[in-house]
C-alpha cells in the first residue's frame, strides 16, 4: 500500500479547495490537493459558475480598486451603490426564511471583502457584471448594477479556476488528479488522513484534512433520497464529480449533519440543456429574464409570482417551482415590449414565436383556450397606467386580482409576435452539509471539534435554506476556505512540535 504524508491535505479542486490550499501554503504548510476529476475536468462547480461574488462593500469606491486593467473601460459605463452588511443580512435572512446561521454569516460579512482583495493578490482577476446581464449594444448609457451582484471573476468560472490553478501551480503544492477521496482515516473523533481510491489499490494520505468537495447534487441516488420524488431526473448544471461520497463518509465518522437537507439551489434552464454540466457551455443554458415574462406550464397555467423580486433573489428557488410542473416543463412568454431586456445568454436558445397567442399555444402543444384565457386574465389584472422600470422593483403588480400575483414588472402581454422560451429545472448545488464552527473546524454529533478535520464550500451546511442570494456561494467558500487553510496549517505546526 502506498502512503503519503503532508501537513495539510485538501480534498477537492474548486474555489473553496484551491483557496484553502493557497492559504495553507501561505501559512507555511506542505500541502497536497486531491482532485477526483481528471486534469481536463478539474475545478468542480466553480468552473461552471457565472463567478459572481456577493459580499458587503461600499460601492464603486471599494469595487473599483479590485478590478483588473481590462475591466476598467467597462466600469465607466456602470454605477454601483453600496451593498451594506445590513442589506446582505436582510437578503440572507429573507431567502433562508430567517434560518441562515448568523455566526457564519457574520464571518462572511467581516472577511468577505478582504478575501476578495487577497484573491486578487493570488492572481484572480475581477470585473463588473455589466456584460453578463445586459446586452450593451441594446442597453446604451450608464447602467446602475445591482450592488449585491456587481462583481464577478474575469471570464467567469473558467477564468476564476484558471487563475486559482495557475496560482497553485506556481507554488510547491502537490496536486493529485483522478484521485477520489474514498474515506477518512480516523482514531476516534480525530482525523489522521484520507484514503483515496485508485483502480486496483488505495493510497493513504496522512495530515490535517480540509474537505472541500462539494455537495451531492451529482448523485441521483442521494437527490432522490434527500430532495424527494423527481429530483433524481433533473438536469445537473455543474460537475459530475460532486457525488457526496465524502459527505456521507464524514457523517459516518461522526461529523454532524446540518442545514437544509431537503433543499437545494435549482434554477430555470433551457429545455435542451445537457443532462449534466458541459464545460463547453458552462452556465449559458440559464434563463433568468423571467421577471419580464409570464411563465406557464404545459396546462397553460401560471404557477408562480415571476416578479416577486430581482431574479438574483428568486432564481435559485424557481428551478424547483418549474420542476414540480407536469413534465418539469414551463414556457417563459414575452411580447415585443420586453424582448430587448433578455440576458445575452438567451442567444443560445431556440425561441418559439407566433403572431397570435392561439398560434403560439398550438406550437407549444398547450390548449389554446386555456393559454389565451390565462394571458387575458393576467392582462386584465396588470395595472393600466403603470410606469415600467426593469432595473428597480417597480411595484407594477397584479395584486390580489389573481390567485397567483405578479408583484413587479406586470406589463400586459399584448404586442406580438409573441415569443416563448422552454425551460426546465436544473440543480446547481445542495444545501445540506456538515456543521463547522467559525474557524472551519468540523463539529461532531456532540458539538465538539473533530481534531484534524476542516471543511469549506458547499460541503458545509447551515448557510442556505429554501432559496439563495446569487453570488453568496462562492464568497462563502472562499472566506471559509482561506480560514480553514490557515487553521489547518497552524495545527500541523503545533502537532509536529509535540
Ligand atoms: C452553472 C453554475 C453557475 C453558478 N454560478 C455561480 C455564481 O455566479 N456565483 C456563485 O456564488 N455561485 C455560483 N454557482 C455555485 C458555485 O459554483 C458553488 O457554490 C461553488 O462552486 C462551490 O464551490 P466548492 O469549492 O464548494 O465546490 P466545487 O467547486 O463544486 O468543487 C468541488 C470539488 O471537489 C471534487 N470532488 C468531489 N468529490 C470528491 C472526492 N470524493 N475526492 C476528491 N475530490 C472530490 C470535485 O471534482 C471538485 O473539484 C454556480 C454553479 C453552477 C453549477
Automatic annotation (TrEMBL):
Domain of life of the native organism: Eukaryota
Record carries keyword Oxidoreductase:
yes
Q: Name one GO molecular function term.
A: oxidoreductase activity
Cofactor(s) in the UniProt record: FAD
Give the matching InterPro entries: FAD-dep_OxRdtase_2_FAD-bd, FAD-oxidoreductase_2, FAD/NAD-bd_sf, Succ_DH/fumarate_Rdtase_cat_sf
**Any Pfam family matching the protein:** FAD_binding_2
Q: Which residues form the FAD-dependent oxidoreductase 2 FAD-binding domain?
A: 7-472
Answer whether the UniProt record assigns the keyword NAD to this protein.
no
Query: What name does this protein carry?
Result: FAD/NAD(P)-binding domain-containing protein
Question: Which species is the source of this protein?
Answer: Penicillium bovifimosum
Q: Give the organism's phylogenetic lineage.
A: Eukaryota, Fungi, Dikarya, Ascomycota, Pezizomycotina
